[in-house]
Specification:
7 strands, 30% helix, globular
Length: 211
């Protein structure tokens, strides 16, 4: 899907993903010391906004202008001290030039693109990590096609934890977690998406060593 396709999808529904942050983002990052974060393919900003409520200074990047307009509207309803921690930028995660070693956290959540594009995004994300920084990657796992529900049905844009590790094998990152995780969908308040069932996600959390 190109940026116009995503603009159309966001325009057709109020809050496509709901307002609650992704459960894996919350599980992995609750209690972490806040710093500067980059949320690539932020969509309507639900994860970036949650990070800001936790004290992070967050830049949310997306190539859908409609999604970013939604994110800005949500930001306007936040307390000033939270809203001031959020910056929204229009751009493509596949070509975005982030400051080298500029972020304590880079989040890539549900960016489902072909393998070559995914590899480019993840390697740019790794380069943007400051010493001691965390890279968290979450997405629809390849096995979701046969074992789960919802998500893209094109295997070319799905991946496994091992794919992410292979993409970043030479980047000097330490693996904290690399696993398939399972979430019930359709039952959460405000859920926008598939009917009930269990979805299979790939989750990888990596850290750059402190220098």
């Amino acid at each position: 899907m190109d940026s116009q396709d995503w603009d159309d999808r966001y325009a057709a529904s109020e809050l496509v993903w709901g307002v609650e942050p992704n459960r894996w983002v919350v599980r992995e990052l609750t209690g972490r010391t806040p710093g500067h974060a980059l949320d690539l393919a932020t969509g309507e900003g639900r994860n970036a906004i949650w990070l800001a409520t936790q004290g992070w200074e967050v830049t949310g990047l997306d190539y859908s202008a409609v999604a970013l307009e939604r994110a800005e509207r949500l930001t306007a309803d936040l307390p000033d001290e939270v809203a001031d921690r959020l910056t929204w930028r229009h751009g493509d995660a596949r070509s975005h030039e982030a400051p080298a070693a500029g972020y304590d956290l880079v989040l890539v959540a549900y960016l489902q693109v072909p393998a070559e594009d995914r590899r480019a995004v993840l390697r740019r994300a790794a380069a943007a990590l400051a010493p001691g920084g965390t890279l968290l990657v979450v997405g629809h796992d390849l096995s979701n096609l046969t074992e789960g529900v919802g998500g893209p049905q094109d295997p070319a844009v799905l991946f496994t934890p091992q794919d992410v590790l292979a993409d970043l094998a030479d980047q000097g990152l330490r693996t904290v977690r690399a696993e398939r995780v399972y979430r019930t969908v359709g039952a959460e308040p405000g859920h926008r998406g598939e009917g009930g069932g269990v979805a299979v996600d790939a989750l990888v959390r990596l850290e750059r060593g402190a220098e």
